[in-house]
From TrEMBL:
CDD domains: ALDH_CddD_SSP0762. It catalyses: an aldehyde + NAD(+) + H2O = a carboxylate + NADH + 2 H(+). This is aldehyde dehydrogenase (NAD(+)). The active site is at residue 243.
Amino acid sequence: MTSDLYVGGSWTSSTGAERVTVLNPATEEAIGDVPSGTPEDVALAVRAARRAFEDWAETGPGERAKFVARLADELERRQDEITGVLVAEVGTPRRVARWAQVGLGIVDLREASAAAAEFAWQENLRNSLIIREAIGVVGCITPWNYPLHQITAKIGAALCAGCTVVVKASEVAPLTARALAQAIDAVGFPPGVFNLLHGYGTVVGEALARHPDVDMVSFTGSTAVGRRILELAAPSIKRVALELGGKSASVLLDDADLAVAVPHTVRASYLNGGQSCNAQTRMLVARHQLAEAGELAAEAAAQYVPGDPADDATKLGPMVSAVQRDRVLSYVRQGIEDGARLLTGSPEPSRRHSRGYFVEPAVFSEVDPNARIAQEEIFGPVLSIIPYDTDEEAVAIANGTPYGLAGAVWSADAQRAQRVARRLRATQIEVNGGKFNAAAPFGGYRQSGLGREGEAFGLGEFVEVKSLQL
Ligand code: NAD
């Protein structure tokens, strides 16, 4: 057994002997393994986090923020190494992995640290002193698609708030989390403040979510598992934050510059192989512009040639696993069966490579807004173009899924774009390509989740609010 859990400030072995093999999705070769994990591992980690809690919560916010800022610096020093791990286990193209994966992880920590300096830890309200204090031990359960950022978005805020954390990394991409724990170890956080577990969701994730001594679960992943987390948390009434799936719409109003908006939407749909919760997977286009938009989208999609993710020129790597590849291809098949027009792409695996879980990027046009490919999260490079006749109808279609995570609006008239953007029931809306802001609130309406991450909004999730009447 290797020592690969990080508990109470040391590397330790799992109490179980089973291992999970990690594959490189571009080569299908084994690149490492981690424990498959046990409920006893969870119990040990929660105990370590509980023991560390009081002292960490009493460390001032300034001191905690300094630790988190030092972790950002440490990750920056290791950025190339961690990017390499991430490319190998997720298949994200190297250039994207460097900025959108590892770079974003660093930004999360810096933003949390900066927000902690300005956060209203206490304030007066008439005769009361309002105090915000750490909620306690937080269980963080995270997915594989942005395996660093999804942990740092949680722990940056949780640690700054004074919580201690137990992270259960995705079993599909656990090696990036191990690299993060190595950086945390190098920074020298007090023992037990950060703990890392590995293993399957149904065993380790469930044990963490239901553990009576965990005060809060912060989960990022699929809506189906988010629902299960709520059930597991119910008996102990623990707080739950959920960052779940999406089916975000990019609304191209009829005065939008299609030559800019269409390639931008294709990029926002295909980033990280379409394996992004906020991927803009539906492009809404005025009916009379459908043919032109379709041509531009197919042209943009042709730039996404599936290739070796370690190559700096690659824009589209493999899907993360055989399961994910098959899921994506089954949706392409479904789209064809449901009568949508496949402009480019294939329901068969890409023939460009003899190994690896590669698919061709797909663009469908004339998609019925209620078709499965327009309603369900696919998590692959599959864009659905949906025609509409009026702005009113475009808004209804954009809001017409169970999700509400992100979106975009394009128009030559900035006021008109903003008016439509305000009507979208989702959290992060790009207006005319407005760039991503890690300090802005991120999270979901409806079945895209509960709560927000991002700077002060994230910090607010990890505190209890109390008052002293003076
Ligand atoms: P997933 O829900 O299958 O797994 C996420 C995590 O939950 C993993 O660590 C997994 O082991 C664990 N898990 C699985 N079953 C569990 C259970 N019964 N109890 C406790 N834990 C359990 O998701 P995934 O396939 O890893 O990631 C893709 C999904 O994540 C997509 O739906 C995507 O939209 C979503 N996601 C959301 C956001 C966001 O911020 N809203 C960000 C990234 C990904």
